[in-house]
Amino acid sequence: MGLLLFVPMYNCAPQIGRTLEQVTAAWRPSIAEILVLDNGSTDGGRDVAGAACARLRALGYHAHVGKNDANYGLGGSHKVAFAYALERGHDGVVVFHGDDQGRLADLLDVADSFSAECVLGARFMPGSRIQGYAPHRILANVAFNGIYSALTARALWDLGSGLNLYRRRFLERRLWEGCADDLTFNYHLLLRSAAHPDVSLAFTPISWREEDQVSNAKLWKHGVQMLGITRALLLSRTAWLTADHRTHRPPLTFTRQPDVTP
Ligand SMILES: Nc1nc2c(ncn2[C@@H]2O[C@H](COP(=O)(O)OP(=O)(O)OP(=O)(O)O)[C@@H](O)[C@H]2O)c(=O)[nH]1
Ligand SMILES: [Mg+2]
What we know:
The chain is of the alpha/beta class. 39% of the residues lie in helices and 19% in strands. The protein is built from 8 helices and 10 strands. Helix 2 links the parallel strand 2 (31-38) and strand 3. Helix 1 runs parallel beside helix 2 (45-58) and helix 5 (135-152) runs parallel beside helix 8 (219-242). The longest helix has 24 residues, at 219-242. The two termini are 27 Å apart. The protein binds guanosine-5'-triphosphate and magnesium ion. Residues 97, 99, 101, 162, 215 line the site of magnesium ion (MG). Guanosine-5'-triphosphate is lined by residues 8-10, 12, 39, 73-74, 77, 97-99, 101, 162, 183, 213, 215-217.
């Protein structure tokens, strides 16, 4: 038994190798499997990931690359990984974005000190380190953290970083199934979780950088979506939280890519 390390990737060929290089032999006892899940990249990133997985297998990991059978979005990719982890009997899923913005150690080295069902990396709490983010983006993130915290009456230190642990008992609640399949997936999941009286959430400070990454989260589009969610929560909270926001009907499937040798 152990965790599934799930690395979503989409057109991040320059970063995916660096992301996977962060995985050292030290975490072998706690990581049962590594799934690098490509969402239809067209930049050759899958080959880079394949070579990195060969190195990880040499370290003793069960590591492989998968490719979604359609473009399911970042949220849809989470659903593929969550369903797969449940089916494989894993203890939970660590999500670690493939574009090398975070430090895996920030979460994995402290995860055992939390008993919460979800241990969420927080980019904007005391102890966090943000590099290369424009001030207006930091401000927008902090503002929405405050708004959503007020709306849920829970301290939400990050609405969706790319470094999170979801334990099995949380995945079994299946709150993730009706969430949006796009980049707003994390907001949906966090809001559903925060509204659920039994779900325990813990936030831990992480570092997050923007160097050569191309952020897909277009600020204005994202801001408008977040305002839309705020409005929906204010006007019809229960209806929004229980609605089916999916684009893709299950089953969402992926194909395991052939292993390459180092
Ligand atoms: N945009 C997008 N990213 C995907 C998809 N599938 C997987 N990903 C990966 O998910 C991550 C998305 O990250 P970003 O584009 O940085 O968006 P974000 O993390 O919400 O925004 P930041 O605040 O810049 O970190 C990247 O690692 C992508 O490689 C997809 O369908 N669309
Ligand atoms: Mg990102």
